[in-house]
């Protein structure tokens, strides 16, 4: 394996992680030369070679195809105080222009890309951005740009030189080709600190000016490798680069105690105000609600007791089935209803958040934000089912969110490794150069361009600038062109690949002719997929090939937008299409990630992709908070992150593991036929859980505390002292009493940078210690420190962390990160956190925080519910069953989680109960032998209490009655179809070990592009439709049989028929949306559905009549039939 051909980068020399290297495979060798990475330009055929400069010069044949690059750039002087060195800027830009690939048993390479997309790139942060032309003769290279779009020039004479010529000049003579003077090498570590902006230094209290490399040498183990764990946990230094601690008095000069306490005094000058508060439901609503729960619970007990003591001896089988189902329904109702006794609402105060974290002060005159960083994850897997345009719009809404730009980082996980997704993300980053400043200038909402330009109404409402109409018209035109480019990418990639493959075939044919080979022999050239710069795409190809197909491709990481400068960058009226004067034009960091996949490895689907993002983001940006979104869920409220941060940064927020936002959906039919909005769950159940230990994790729209995802317990504030324990280095026992220093790699893997990032994320995620009640906080102002620039060592370490072998023999997926072993990994992940004692918060904002899409056709909806229910069955039969939870899980929270694992089993009893009215009509019997006043009164009391509970629940949750009824209807539809299938599949997996596979829910539109509800009328055959159809047809046939029999009786007993038909009609009323969905708009229901269902229903009915003929009361007799008193 090749290594760096020069010294480690400055960042590597400043941190211990830079002195170590990640292994290329499990158990690989480690060296002190830095993470293994090779910069090399690939040939036109996509191959790599390892040739020295001398070899290239000697070989004229390869001199045009192969060029070798090294990573290190010698340091150069920097004349601007508090700015990163020119060399570091150039290296960061070069790193962002490189496509990093690597994986199992392979070299980590950085492919320098001339262009990322076919269109022109203008923003200086984006990959592929170039500056002026190089002034060296016969060189067509481009100069790197800094974050302000200016050329990076390493010499004071302003001689323009590209990086490659600069490296050659340094290697040959060390003289500047322009002024013939030596390049001056500045000391990167001797920059004079400047505290005018309130930024605090990062040196340790034991050796403020010592050489870190000397300490690193002292911390080596017996093998000579750097012992990162010993350095990280046993010294009194800081936690690594990027962290800060409360400084000593002399660091502020002669101010003494006054200087040290400046930040605290500034906060004490203002009255302390909370960032959030809890709003309890009015007593006039919640008290009757709780009383009705108790009364119905008591009534249920009396009702079931009466039913058990009064069996129907004329139809004991009917009585036994009914009483069994009713007992289970009562148990299921208790699990669902009891956790709802304490619903709460919450509200935030964004003005207080701004005053505490973003306002200028004497110690922070420039107003640098003290908010913690946050990493946003977007996951996608298949560009055919998840359109790239949808994902691109989600990315644009994230990049334009209202949060400090330098504290934001966006990561997109492409689990399919598709070039289509890669180039779509690059196009989105390019369009963000215009869209993001436009949103900031005119305060646009929502910041998803597709949704914004589709809004109906006056777009000029509440807009103050006179140039808004002109700007909007220009941006709309650019967005239309952007959509054309995105939608045209599949054809563009196909044509480009066909052209390059044809060229390769011509080269091969020419080579065969020159070598005298048999011309009849067929030409064998791989049908590769080609990138815009004319090289092979390292991910999956359109025509699958070895190491280039789904489930078998290298890991890919591309920094689409490099980290922005720490200070605002104001635009002008000259360099953009619009006038962005006094508008910050910086863009957040944006990274494309496609983890490595190889045959023989269990990649654990979405949970594995999320864990890969957790590791890579910890190395690159290490935001103490993580927000994950599905590719079709975009940010509808640009202040949503600030809303969630109000809870995390408030007093008592240190033990919050995640903030769950409600899911809101667009594109749902007005009648919400299949309860897609799921408002009963999001507005009722989740609010109720918020009054306990917190809502469950539902998979998207969730802001996590990174430290909680690492599997640690919530902080124990008992060990903090009055001596300022936040200035002391944390020990392993502070994180987890059972975690040994030597077992750290076993839990998190062998990445030293990842290990270093853990205490940094923990510290930076603490609330500000601005109140005596905050026992576990951080001092104000410590997060104003500028971020370190990216270097190749750091990015290469991130590539190794997304390799397929990294999780082997670690606790990723078992205790750390997203939990594996269930198709509903979200619920299990949240349960594990609650089980360790963390709590969560439900954040409902006045303006919806996020919006997404949901399947509105019947088949996709049933398959979606099937996946959820199957995951619940898996949870019930696993060690994640709430019965086995620890004492840290509160009792009512335990009931709620127990209900999550139990609810699919209700389908077994529900199916039986739906057949009971039909059986009663056919046989002439009923579940009770005789109707008594006691039975009717108890049944009436239960029904009235149920109606009262529904009305009161609608009052405190805000759910409409129609929405409540739609939820009841779909509960029966899904309970008799998807839930039943889930129980069967779950039992097969537990008993027979048969694995369950699910297809990805399609986010693409229907075939009728003019009708947004076209998918509603699509009917696709699925076996899940059979049980509800059979139930419906059996009840209809039973009503016909009972009606016919009643007509031809000598003494018609209409009371029997009406009583039985009422319950059958109740079942059919619940199945009405299902029947309506089967009809479709164009009668597209498969004929086989009705044929099979009809045959089954008729066969069952006739078989029942033949085996159990009518033995009801004869003429003039009372018998044991059902009659009204």
From TrEMBL:
<feature type="transmembrane region" description="Helical">
    <location>
        <begin position="926"/>
        <end position="952"/>
    </location>
</feature>
<keyword id="KW-0333">Golgi apparatus</keyword>
<feature type="binding site">
    <location>
        <position position="385"/>
    </location>
    <ligand>
        <name>UDP-alpha-D-glucose</name>
    </ligand>
</feature>
<feature type="compositionally biased region" description="Low complexity">
    <location>
        <begin position="18"/>
        <end position="36"/>
    </location>
</feature>
<keyword id="KW-0328">Glycosyltransferase</keyword>
<feature type="transmembrane region" description="Helical">
    <location>
        <begin position="315"/>
        <end position="335"/>
    </location>
</feature>
<feature type="binding site">
    <location>
        <position position="630"/>
    </location>
    <ligand>
        <name>Mn(2+)</name>
    </ligand>
</feature>
<feature type="transmembrane region" description="Helical">
    <location>
        <begin position="896"/>
        <end position="920"/>
    </location>
</feature>
<feature type="transmembrane region" description="Helical">
    <location>
        <begin position="1054"/>
        <end position="1075"/>
    </location>
</feature>
<dbReference type="InterPro" id="IPR013083">
    <property type="entry name" value="Znf_RING/FYVE/PHD"/>
</dbReference>
<dbReference type="GO" id="GO:0000139">
    <property type="term" value="C:Golgi membrane"/>
</dbReference>
<feature type="active site">
    <location>
        <position position="415"/>
    </location>
</feature>
<feature type="binding site">
    <location>
        <position position="386"/>
    </location>
    <ligand>
        <name>UDP-alpha-D-glucose</name>
    </ligand>
</feature>
<dbReference type="Pfam" id="PF03552">
    <property type="entry name" value="Cellulose_synt"/>
</dbReference>
<dbReference type="Pfam" id="PF14570">
    <property type="entry name" value="zf-RING_4"/>
</dbReference>
<protein>
    <recommendedName>
        <fullName>Cellulose synthase-like protein D4</fullName>
    </recommendedName>
</protein>
<dbReference type="GO" id="GO:0016757">
    <property type="term" value="F:glycosyltransferase activity"/>
</dbReference>
<keyword id="KW-0472">Membrane</keyword>
<feature type="transmembrane region" description="Helical">
    <location>
        <begin position="289"/>
        <end position="309"/>
    </location>
</feature>
<dbReference type="InterPro" id="IPR005150">
    <property type="entry name" value="Cellulose_synth"/>
</dbReference>
<feature type="binding site">
    <location>
        <position position="379"/>
    </location>
    <ligand>
        <name>UDP-alpha-D-glucose</name>
    </ligand>
</feature>
<keyword id="KW-0808">Transferase</keyword>
<keyword id="KW-0812">Transmembrane</keyword>
<feature type="active site">
    <location>
        <position position="826"/>
    </location>
</feature>
<feature type="binding site">
    <location>
        <position position="606"/>
    </location>
    <ligand>
        <name>Mn(2+)</name>
    </ligand>
</feature>
<feature type="transmembrane region" description="Helical">
    <location>
        <begin position="1029"/>
        <end position="1048"/>
    </location>
</feature>
<comment type="similarity">
    <text>Belongs to the glycosyltransferase 2 family. Plant cellulose synthase-like D subfamily.</text>
</comment>
<feature type="transmembrane region" description="Helical">
    <location>
        <begin position="1087"/>
        <end position="1107"/>
    </location>
</feature>
<dbReference type="InterPro" id="IPR029044">
    <property type="entry name" value="Nucleotide-diphossugar_trans"/>
</dbReference>
<keyword id="KW-1133">Transmembrane helix</keyword>
<feature type="binding site">
    <location>
        <position position="605"/>
    </location>
    <ligand>
        <name>UDP-alpha-D-glucose</name>
    </ligand>
</feature>
<feature type="binding site">
    <location>
        <position position="415"/>
    </location>
    <ligand>
        <name>UDP-alpha-D-glucose</name>
    </ligand>
</feature>
<feature type="region of interest" description="Disordered">
    <location>
        <begin position="1"/>
        <end position="46"/>
    </location>
</feature>
<keyword id="KW-0961">Cell wall biogenesis/degradation</keyword>
<comment type="function">
    <text>Thought to be a Golgi-localized beta-glycan synthase that polymerize the backbones of noncellulosic polysaccharides (hemicelluloses) of plant cell wall.</text>
</comment>
<dbReference type="GO" id="GO:0071555">
    <property type="term" value="P:cell wall organization"/>
</dbReference>
């Amino acid at each position: 394996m090749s290594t760096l051909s020069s010294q480690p980068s400055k960042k590597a020399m400043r941190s211990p992680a830079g002195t170590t290297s990640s292994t290329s495979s499990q158990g690989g060798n480690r060296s002190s030369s830095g993470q293994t990475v090779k910069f090399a330009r690939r040939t036109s055929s996509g191959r790599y070679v390892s040739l020295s400069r001398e070899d290239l010069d000697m070989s004229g044949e390869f001199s045009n195809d192969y060029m070798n690059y090294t990573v290190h750039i010698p340091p150069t002087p920097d004349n601007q105080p508090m700015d990163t060195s020119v060399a570091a800027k150039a290296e960061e830009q070069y790193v962002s222009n490189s496509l990093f690939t690597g994986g199992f048993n392979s070299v980590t390479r950085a492919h320098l890309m001339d262009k990322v997309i076919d269109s022109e790139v203008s923003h200086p942060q984006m990959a592929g951005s170039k500056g002026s032309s190089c002034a060296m003769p016969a060189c067509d290279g481009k100069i790197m740009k800094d974050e302000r779009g200016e050329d990076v020039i390493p010499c004071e004479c302003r001689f323009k030189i590209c990086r490659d010529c600069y490296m050659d000049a340094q290697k040959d003579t060390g003289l500047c080709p322009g002024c013939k003077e030596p390049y001056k090498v500045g000391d990167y570590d001797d920059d004079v600190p400047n505290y005018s902006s309130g930024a605090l230094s990062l040196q340790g209290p034991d050796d403020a000016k010592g050489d870190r490399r000397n300490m690193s040498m002292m911390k080596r183990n017996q093998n000579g490798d750097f012992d990162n764990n010993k350095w990280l946990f046993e010294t009194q230094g800081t936690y690594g680069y990027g962290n800060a601690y409360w400084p000593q008095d002399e660091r502020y000069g002669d101010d003494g105690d006054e200087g040290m306490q400046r930040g605290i005094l500034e906060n004490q000058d203002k009255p302390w105000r909370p960032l959030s508060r809890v709003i309890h439901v009015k007593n006039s609503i919640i008290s009757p609600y709780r009383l009705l729960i108790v009364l119905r619970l008591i009534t249920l007990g009396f009702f079931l007791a009466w039913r058990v003591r009064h069996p129907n001896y004329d139809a004991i089988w009917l009585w036994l089935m009914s009483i069994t189902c009713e007992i289970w329904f009562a148990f299921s109702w208790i699990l669902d209803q009891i956790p709802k006794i304490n619903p709460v609402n919450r509200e935030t105060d964004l003005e207080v958040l701004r005053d505490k974290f973003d306002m200028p002060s004497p110690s922070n005159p420039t107003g640098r934000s003290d908010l913690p960083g946050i990493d946003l994850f977007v996951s996608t897997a298949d560009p055919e089912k998840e359109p790239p345009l949808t994902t691109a719009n989600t990315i644009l809404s994230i990049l334009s969110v209202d949060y400090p730009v330098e504290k934001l980082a966006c990561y997109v996980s492409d689990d399919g490794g598709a070039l289509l997704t890669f180039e779509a993300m690059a196009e989105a980053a390019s369009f963000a150069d215009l869209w993001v400043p436009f949103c900031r200038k005119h305060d646009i909402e929502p910041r998803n361009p597709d949704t914004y330009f589709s809004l109906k109404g006056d777009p000029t409402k509440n807009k103050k600038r006179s140039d808004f109409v002109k700007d909007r018209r220009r941006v709309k035109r650019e967005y239309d062109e952007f959509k054309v480019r995105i939608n045209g990418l599949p054809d563009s990639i196909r044509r480009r690949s066909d052209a390059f493959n044809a060229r390769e075939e011509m080269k091969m044919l020419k080579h065969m002719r020159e070598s005298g080979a048999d011309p009849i022999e067929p030409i064998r050239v791989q049908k590769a997929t080609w990138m815009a710069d004319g090289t092979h795409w390292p991910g999956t190809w359109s025509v699958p090939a070895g190491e280039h197909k789904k489930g078998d491709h290298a890991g890919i990481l591309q920094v689409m937008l490099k980290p922005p400068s720490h200070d605002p960058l104001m635009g002008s009226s000259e360099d953009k299409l619009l006038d962005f004067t006094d508008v910050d034009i910086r863009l957040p960091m944006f990274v494309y990630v496609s983890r490595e996949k190889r045959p023989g490895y269990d990649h654990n689907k979405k949970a594995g992709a999320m864990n890969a993002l957790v590791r890579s983001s910890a190395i690159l940006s290490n935001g103490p908070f993580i927000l994950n979104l599905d590719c079709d869920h975009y940010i509808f409220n640009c202040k949503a992150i600030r809303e969630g941060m109000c809870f995390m940064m408030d007093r008592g927020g240190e033990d919050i593991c995640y903030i769950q936002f409600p899911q809101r959906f667009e594109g749902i039919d007005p009648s919400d036929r299949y309860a897609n909005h799921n408002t009963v769950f999001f507005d009722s159940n989740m609010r109720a859980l918020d009054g306990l230990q917190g809502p469950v994790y539902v998979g998207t729209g969730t802001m996590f505390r990174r430290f909680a995802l690492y599997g640690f317990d919530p902080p124990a504030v008992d060990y903090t002292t009055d001596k300022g324990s936040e200035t002391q280095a944390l020990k392993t026992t502070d994180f987890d009493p059972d975690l040994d220093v030597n077992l750290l790699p076993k839990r998190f893997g062998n990445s030293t940078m990842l290990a270093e990032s853990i205490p940094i994320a923990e510290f930076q995620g603490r609330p500000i210690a601005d109140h005596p009640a905050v026992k576990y906080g951080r001092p104000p102002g410590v997060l104003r420190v500028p971020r370190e620039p990216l270097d190749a060592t750091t990015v290469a370490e991130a590539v190794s962390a997304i390799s397929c072998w990294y999780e082997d023999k670690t606790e990723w997926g078992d205790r750390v990160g997203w939990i594996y072993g269930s198709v509903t990994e979200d619920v299990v992940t949240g349960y594990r956190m609650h089980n360790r004692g963390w709590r969560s918060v439900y954040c409902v904002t006045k303006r919806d925080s996020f919006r997404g899409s949901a399947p509105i056709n019947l088949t996709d909806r049933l398959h979606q519910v099937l996946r959820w229910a199957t995951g619940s069955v898996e949870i019930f039969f696993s060690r994640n069953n709430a019965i086995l939870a620890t004492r840290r899980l509160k009792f009512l929270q335990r009931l709620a989680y127990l209900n999550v694992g139990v609810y699919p089993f209700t389908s077994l009893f529900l199916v039986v109960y739906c057949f009971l009215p039909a059986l009663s009509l056919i046989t002439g019997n009923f579940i009770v032998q005789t109707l008594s006043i006691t039975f009717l009164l108890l049944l009436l009391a239960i029904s009235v209490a149920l109606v009262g509970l529904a009305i009161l629940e609608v009052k405190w949750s805000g759910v409409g009655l129609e929405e409540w009824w739609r939820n009841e209807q779909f509960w029966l539809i899904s309970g008799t179809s998807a839930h039943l299938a889930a129980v069967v599949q779950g039992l097969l997996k537990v008993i027979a070990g048969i694995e369950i596979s699910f297809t990805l829910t399609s986010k693409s539109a229907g075939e009728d592009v003019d009708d947004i509800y076209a998918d509603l009328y699509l009917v696709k055959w699925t076996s899940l439709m059979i049980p509800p159809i059979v139930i419906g047809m059996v009840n209809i046939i039973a009503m016909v049989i009972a009606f016919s029999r009643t007509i031809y009786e000598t003494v018609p007993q209409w009371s029997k028929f009406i009583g039985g038909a009422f319950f059958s009609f109740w079942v059919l009323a619940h199945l009405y949306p299902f029947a309506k969905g089967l009809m479709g708009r164009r009668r597209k229901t498969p004929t086989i559905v009705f044929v099979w269902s009809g045959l089954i229903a008729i066969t069952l009915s006739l078989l029942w009549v033949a085996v159990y003929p009518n033995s009801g009361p004869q003429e003039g007799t009372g018998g044991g039939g059902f009659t009204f008193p």
